[in-house]
Amino acid sequence: MKDSFQREIHALRISVTDRCNMRCRYCVSGDLLKLKPQDELLSLDEIEAVIRAALVLDFDAFRFTGGEPLVREGLLDFLLRVSRLDGVRKLSLSTNGSMLERSLDQLAAARVQSLNISLDTLRPARYEQITRGGELGPVLGGIDAAANDGRFKIKLNAVLMNGFNDDELAELAALTISRPINLRFIEYMPFGSWQRVENENAKGLSVGEALARLKQVFEMDDNVRGPGGDGPATYAQIRGAKGFVGFISPVHSPFCERCNRLRLTADGQLKGCLLADERFQLRNWMRSASYNAEELIARIAMAVMAKPEKHEYARNFDMSTVGG
Ligand code: SAM
Question: Which of these, 53, 118, 131, 236, could form a disulfide with 296 (CB 3.0-4.6 Å)?
Answer without folding.
Answer: 53
